[in-house]
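Exercise: predict the fold of this chain.
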Amino acid sequence: MEDLRPIFQLLERKLGFLNAECCDTCCGQEISVIQSHILYEIHRRHHPSMQEVAGALGMDISTFSRQIKTLVEKGIVKKTPNPDDQRVQNLSLTPEGVSMENRIHDYVNTQLNALFSRMTPFERETVLRSLQLLIQTMEKAGSCCIPLR
């Protein structure tokens, strides 16, 4: 079978640079790549719990809590007790957090659209359909790594 790892390593690196560049240039304040992922997950869900977002990102709760603490101190994220269970903290973006997430979103989309504009319509559709298929396959498998038997 073909050695696929180099392709994915390079793809991850290239996309990582896109995220890192975004976080350095579009937000108006210093924010890490993982913090931008946290903002994205909070924004796309309705008042998620800390556990939901940490799970979606594959982060352990203690590491995630430190990141949330920083985002709360920056005035970007707000924590509120869940009305049904006071032990659970729900997350939301402050108005500044929504603005920052929108700037990050617009920047990344602009960069990706510029990249995809260099492809023919057929190439764009092929790449996007292939990525969607890969994601669906990974979701069915339950992880990216399928046990060897």
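Check your answer against the key: DSSP finds six helices and two strands in the chain.
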